[in-house]
Amino acid sequence: TWTVVPSAAFVTVRFWYDDPARFIVTVRAPTGEALTVLPGQSRSMATSSGLVWLDNTLSPLVQEPRQVFLTLSGAAREAQWRVTFEPVFPGRVDGWIESAKMGYFLEGDGERTIAEPGNAFSVITVGAYVTRTSWISQAGEQRAEGYALWALAPFSSRGPTRDGRLKPELAAPGAWIASALSSAAAPSSWYVLPDGKHMVLAGTSMAAPHVAGACALLLSLRPDLTRTEVLAALQRGARADTHVGTAPNAAWGWGKLDLPGAWASLGPSQRPPAPWLAALDNPARTGTTFRYGCPEGTGWAELQVYDLLGRLLWRESLSPAGGLVRWDLRTLQGHAVASGLYLAVLVTDRGASPPVRVVVQR
């Protein structure tokens, strides 16, 4: 039995389970009225506590869990709705309220709460921990209740994924982070710092940029690293303190982001040096500048730009010493290229760089 406690008048809840399990689902209102739905059925009922819609028919996509969909409309706040799953064929049931603002479960362990795109195979999923609990704002001194320094943030989702993979990969500072305030934003003065140019926020969207920046720094020092190697370095270098406990685990992954530890774990490159190319202006409107580098002993280097049909549009001889080069978005015939996607590559007598995608927006 699950107990749903609404915090808003409209609540959307999803439950899911794997084949071959099947359940008879009963929703009981705070006032006692009950709605029972068999597998393959959907029904609604008006109660004195609100309108219930229960759908036990949702068929999965290929190799996806089956779902039970529940909505409460006009629900009384902080009242308790009980959802009971009576097994026809037993199995594990997981539940998810679509927004924390809608309400919460009294039961549950917080596991398997990572949402998309955090469940994707090729992304680095980042949890958030607390590095600040108070600050001085334009409205005076503020204190974040319910947050403990250095502990996992209460909003940070836990793994594993529904198919059993361990996520998040690691955690980074995510509450409360001070950063630049956009001129287009109009936040509460509680969050704006006294200078009016910075504000504090909390979220895994604050933690993920820390890891993105760490990846960028590692790649700036070792452009030859693959995605797998970057992730492995972050995991090896992560810190496990008393808050993290034994790592890896489903709350912290391999632990707290530690960039010096990640760098120290890499060691010297095992691959021969290779040419590299990076676009500094992307998307480009009037031109784009590339930074490039060549292996020691390179005899010649050339920038080449192609369209998506593989036609050579531009080529330019470069110094093998490396540096900067600018392409003014023109062809060898002097024509301006149209808006679209182009591929740039650094070609040398010591090999070629991976292609760099350049987006032209006129």
CATH architectural name of the largest domain? 3-Layer(aba) Sandwich
**What is the CATH homology-level superfamily of the largest domain?**
Peptidase S8/S53 domain
Oligomeric organization of the protein chains: single chain
Helix/strand class: mainly beta
Tags for this model:
single chain, 362 residues, mainly beta, Jelly Rolls, Rossmann fold, Immunoglobulin-like, 3 domains, 5-stranded antiparallel beta sheet, 3 helices, elongated
Describe this structure in words.
The termini are far apart. β5 and β6 (50-55) form a beta hairpin. The chain is 10% helix and 36% strand. It is elongated, with a radius of gyration of 27 Å. A 5-stranded antiparallel beta sheet has the order 4-3-8-1-10, with no helix packed on it. Strands 5-6-7-2-9 form a 5-stranded antiparallel beta sheet, with no helix packed on it. Strands 19, 20, 22, 23 and 24 form a 5-stranded antiparallel beta sheet that branches. The chain has 362 residues and is mainly β. The protein has 3 helices and 24 strands. The model has no long low-confidence stretch (mean pLDDT 93). It folds into 3 domains: 2-105, Jelly Rolls (Sandwich), CATH 2.60.120; 126-266, Peptidase S8/S53 domain (Rossmann fold, 3-Layer(aba) Sandwich), CATH 3.40.50.200; 276-360, Sandwich (Immunoglobulin-like), CATH 2.60.40.10.
